[in-house]
Specification:
With 614 residues, the chain is of the alpha+beta class. Helices cover 24% and strands 18% of the residues. The chain is built from 13 helices and 22 strands. Strands 8, 13, 14, 15, 16, 19, 20 and 21 form an 8-stranded antiparallel sheet that branches. Strands 1, 2, 9, 10, 11, 12 and 22 form a 7-stranded mixed sheet that branches. Strands 5-18-17 form a 3-stranded mixed sheet, with helices on one face. Strand 6 and strand 7 form a beta hairpin. The radius of gyration is 24 Å and the shape is globular. It starts with 6 loop residues before the first strand and ends in a 14-residue tail after the last helix. The structure holds flavin-adenine dinucleotide (FAD) and iron/sulfur cluster. Iron/sulfur cluster binds next to loops.
Length: 614
């Protein structure tokens, strides 16, 4: 296409959630935007959905990337790349993301058009005001922004992602501030049957935090969801909201119908994916797919001028723009900055890698709970997220898991195998036993805040090269005692919740290939999984000596270069991070537009004509 020969206003690297949003916003202003995407062009058509489902159905492991069609030129880390070592401490990591840390970074991401946002669960809570300054609690890093600064952008992000939640409930039980009269675009999703059973037994009960010895009141609270429910007619001052379906087209009838395959694919188009945003791109936004960006180009003054990308056959092309936006995912953004040897002043590129290490506990309720229906989680307990207790241990959100033991144990196949082998059951007896066991399964998922630690980092592997000859990213990762103490509190809370419910506790972190994330702390064994919430690798701050980007996600060292995404977040807090990331991306788009407007109409500091005295 001839556009490759031209100069763009903006080049966006990566068509995931962050990149798709920035491109849409700037395209709306008429800016000429080129989006370079490593994966293949994808659409949201009925046919491509069917093909994705076929791939999922035939995949031997139903991992997040199993609906995608990978190409050897574009690797990505799957959760199955990291395995435990049976019977002995340690873990092994193979594949795209290599590791040399004491503990595994136990998360993956996806490099395909739409990125990890194709396969995410879609939980979209906001951060708490106090999360923006954990230094107050003696750890972590302060944001150069407050909740109030970000609040209007949260609302824009909730519109873009189509969030369903109850503002009054979020105000009362999470402690969030919204402008008077704010409603979310769509009404909260109904609580699952499991949520209702747990709420009936637990609401108002208290459990003791074994670390701080405080009593915490339990209350089930609905989790904001980036998936279609019933639109709220009061939204936007009574203008209402129309849900978006396939290709981002308005679809008033689109609803979450409870298929429970949100990871990796929503067959009914209810879950937000970046393909919905891409469907709303204006004509000034162009996508070049199969374009693996390998380097950011800068001029002699360090100003970004464009990028170089490789085709799958390894052919290099250069394109130029006034502004370059890296939106390739926290780990790949850091990899690109390292490959380009840019933003070196603070020494922080790649450092401060954070995730939400998730402690899982799993049990059997006395009665059937109706699992494997609806989104992965519809409600949670919010009482451990905030307050001075976070001085003593990492805070956490408790997600109530609607999908039985699938994340913890790989059920249902595992249950069948166990009942067959251990109990010798066959036929009708086996069917009854599987139905009974699977029907009563539930999990609690404790998402721990992990604070920024420069030692947790992404580097370039010294020798290993990918299909295109680019160094593989390598991660060094560990958990602090603050996080581990959070897990002690989490397990203690879980024990008490299980007792209050009369649930059988089947939690077991015994050494196994399926549990790479295991450690001993204070005489007890714990196991964790990654949440896929990579953050912090191009951290934001208020000084070029200590951070990579400023509060607008502009690289301090390189005018015209932005790095957007969770990589900019100074803390990952306890909320799933993508809504905050989307709010930050929208805020950056405003700044980029202002930068470009300034270029078009430079501000004159000296008046052109001398003032005439009156
Ligand atoms: C299983 C799973 C469940 C999750 N659930 C939730 C959830 O419920 N709530 C939540 O808040 N978060 C969730 N997350 C996290 C969420 O998916 C990420 O925060 C989000 O997708 C990050 O968006 P991004 O645009 O920065 O990166 P990505 O979505 O990863 O997009 C990056 C894009 O850049 C492209 N790219 C990469 N390298 C290059 C290159 N060199 N050149 C050109 N293009 C490139 C990729 O192909 C991709 O399209 C989940 C993650 C996983 C893995
Ligand atoms: S529960 Fe089903 S319909 Fe709802 S978002 Fe998930 S996959 Fe889509």
């Amino acid at each position: 296409m001839s556009h490759l020969a031209s100069h763009y206003d903006v080049i966006v690297v990566g068509a995931g959630i962050a990149g798709s949003i920035v491109a849409k916003d700037l395209g709306r202003q008429g800016r000429r935007v080129l989006v370079l995407e490593a994966g293949e062009r994808a659409t949201d058509s009925a046919r491509s959905h069917r093909e994705a489902l076929d791939r999922y159905a035939t995949a031997s492991a139903k991992v997040p990337g199993s609906t995608q069609r990978p190409h050897p030129a574009v690797g990505w880390p799957e959760v199955t790349d990291v395995t435990g070592t049976d019977g002995v401490p340690g873990f092994r990591a193979a594949g795209h993301l290599l590791q040399d840390g004491p503990l595994p970074y136990a998360s993956g991401y996806v490099r395909a058009n739409g990125g990890t946002g194709n396969v995410w669960t879609g939980l979209a809570p906001r951060m708490l005001p106090e999360d923006f300054d954990t230094e107050t609690f003696g750890y972590g890093r302060r944001w150069p922004l407050t909740y109030d600064d970000l609040e209007p952008h949260y609302r824009s992000a909730e519109r873009e992602l189509g969030v369903a939640a109850d503002a009054d409930e979020q105000r009362a039980h999470v402690g969030l501030d919204f402008p008077e009269g704010y409603t979310f675009p769509m009404r909260a999703l109904p609580a699952s049957h499991l949520d209702r059973l747990l709420a009936a037994s637990l609401d108002g009960q208290r459990v003791k935090d074994p670390v701080t010895l405080d009593e915490v009141e339990l209350r089930m609270v609905g989790t904001p969801q980036a998936r279609n429910s019933v639109p709220d007619p009061g939204y936007d001052g009574g203008r209402g909201y129309v849900p978006r379906g396939a290709q981002g087209r308005p679809d008033p009838a689109s609803r979450c119908v409870g298929n429970a395959t949100c990871i990796p694919h929503c067959p009914s188009y209810a879950k937000y994916t970046p393909l919905k945003t891409q469907g709303q791109w204006g004509s000034s936004v162009a996508l070049t797919d199969r374009a693996v960006v390998s380097r950011v180009l800068v001029d002699g003054n360090g100003r970004a001028t464009g990028v170089e990308y490789l085709s799958y056959e390894g052919q290099a092309t250069r394109v130029h723009a006034d502004v370059v936006v890296l939106a390739a995912h926290a780990i790949e953004n850091a990899r690109l900055l390292l490959l380009s040897r840019l933003a070196t002043r603070s020494g922080q590129v790649g450092r401060n890698l954070m995730d939400h290490p998730v402690l899982l506990t799993w049990g059997l309720m006395p009665e059937a709970v109706g699992p494997y229906r609806g989104p992965g989680s519809t409600s949670g307990f919010e009482g451990f997220r905030a307050g001075p207790q976070r001085r003593a241990r990492a805070p956490f959100r408790i997600e109530v898991g609607n999908w039985g033991w699938v994340w913890a144990k790989g059920t249902v196949d595992g249950d069948v195998a166990q009942l067959l082998h251990d109990k010798g059951l066959f036929g009708a007896e086996l069917r009854r036993a599987v139905g009974d066991r699977v029907g009563r399964q539930f999990t609690l998922q404790f998402e721990m805040e992990q604070s920024a630690d420069p030692a947790n980092r992404v580097t370039l592997h010294p020798h290993a090269r990918d299909h295109l000859g680019l160094p593989h990213p390598q991660v060094t990762y560990d958990l602090s005692d603050h996080v581990k103490d959070g897990m002690v509190a989490a397990k203690g809370a879980s024990d008490q919740i299980f007792a209050l419910l009369g649930a059988e506790d089947h939690t077991d972190y015994a050494p196994a290939a399926a549990w790479p994330g295991r450690f001993e702390h204070k005489g007890r064994l714990y196991g964790y999984r990654g949440a896929g919430h990579a953050a912090g690798t191009h951290i934001m701050g208020d000084s070029p000596g200590t951070s990579v980007v400023d509060s607008w996600q502009r690289c301090w060292d390189h005018p015209g270069l932005y790095a957007v995404g969770c990589g900019s977040m100074p803390s990952v807090a306890t909320s799933n991070p993508t809504l905050t990331m989307a709010a930050l991306a929208l805020r950056s788009a405003q700044r980029i537009e202002a930068d470009l407007a300034e270029r078009d109409h430079p501000v004159s500091l000296t008046p052109d004509t001398p003032e005439v005295p009156a």
